[in-house]
UniProtKB/TrEMBL annotation:
GO biological process: UMP salvage
Protein name: uridine/cytidine kinase
Boundaries of every Phosphoribulokinase/uridine kinase domain copy: 1-156
Catalytic activity: cytidine + ATP = CMP + ADP + H(+); uridine + ATP = UMP + ADP + H(+)
Domain of life of the organism encoding this protein: Eukaryota
Membership in a protein family: Belongs to the uridine kinase family.
Matching Pfam families: PRK
InterPro entries, per database record: P-loop_NTPase, PRK/URK, Uridine_kinase-like
GO molecular function: ATP binding; uridine kinase activity
EC number in record: 2.7.1.48
UniProt KW keywords: Kinase, Nucleotide-binding, Transferase
Length: 220
């Protein structure tokens, strides 16, 4: 979902440089483009996805190509904040993690990967991140089909998700031999990486059967 941040104007760029721009509000995302892209992916079509540069707070010139698949894993902390987006989701998963762990991960990511200073990260956390969690993210657990405690370390929950996706594929398409591919692909997508930072449908996407037959959209 991070790929779909809106392009900032000069004033917003200046705010972002001072850690005064709210990236944790639904208005920060280009949901119109996001919904359009996901609709095409669900139809098995290939799409162009923007690449957002968090060091410059802008989109890069080069967009990446993402191909349609029968199982699409889409991730975003505000993925449940848009009604049109919710209509596209076949399975909604809320991945819960301890608040201290979330803060530590944000500090490590923003300082090591995005060149931020600790003062700015803490300021942004208290001003935008924590209030956004309380207002938008935490309440969205009510629309989730599955709640996963302990994040990607919960192998039991992940296994249940894989089994459900497998059963849905068999029910809709009759793919009796898809299970092992779905299982391996989804576990690769879900387990070894941080669920809070995995990009939209990157190289870990799972492709089963013929492209263009429609997709199951799994959201974390």
């Amino acid at each position: 979902m991070d790929s779909f941040y809106k392009v900032l104007d000069e004033g917003q760029q200046a705010l972002a440089a001072r850690s005064d721009y709210n990236f944790d509000h639904p208005d920060a995302f280009d949901f119109e483009l996001l919904v359009s892209v996901l609709r095409k992916l669900k139809k098995g079509k290939s799409v162009k996805v923007p690449v957002y540069d968090f060091t410059t707070h802008s989109r890069r010139r080069e967009w990446k190509t993402v191909y349609g698949a029968n199982v699409i894993v889409f991730e975003g902390i505000l993925a449940f904040a848009n009604k049109e987006l919710l209509k596209l989701l076949d399975m909604k998963v809320f991945v819960d993690t301890d608040s201290d762990i979330r803060l530590v991960r944000r500090l490590q990511r923003d300082i090591m990967e995005r060149g931020r200073d600790i003062v700015g990260v803490i300021k942004q956390y208290h001003k935008f991140v924590k209030p956004a969690f309380e207002q938008y993210i935490e309440p969205s657990v009510q629309v989730a089909d599955i709640v996963v405690p302990r994040g990607g370390e919960n192998s039991v929950a992940l296994d249940l998700i894989v089994q459900h996706v497998h059963s849905q594929l068999e029910k809709v398409r009759g793919w009796r031999r898809a299970g092992s591919w779905v299982r391996r692909g989804l576990l690769t997508a879900l387990h070894p990486v941080s669920l809070s930072t995995a990009p939209l449908c990157d190289s870990r996407q799972t492709r089963v059967g013929k492209q263009g037959w429609g997709s199951t959209l799994l959201v974390l």
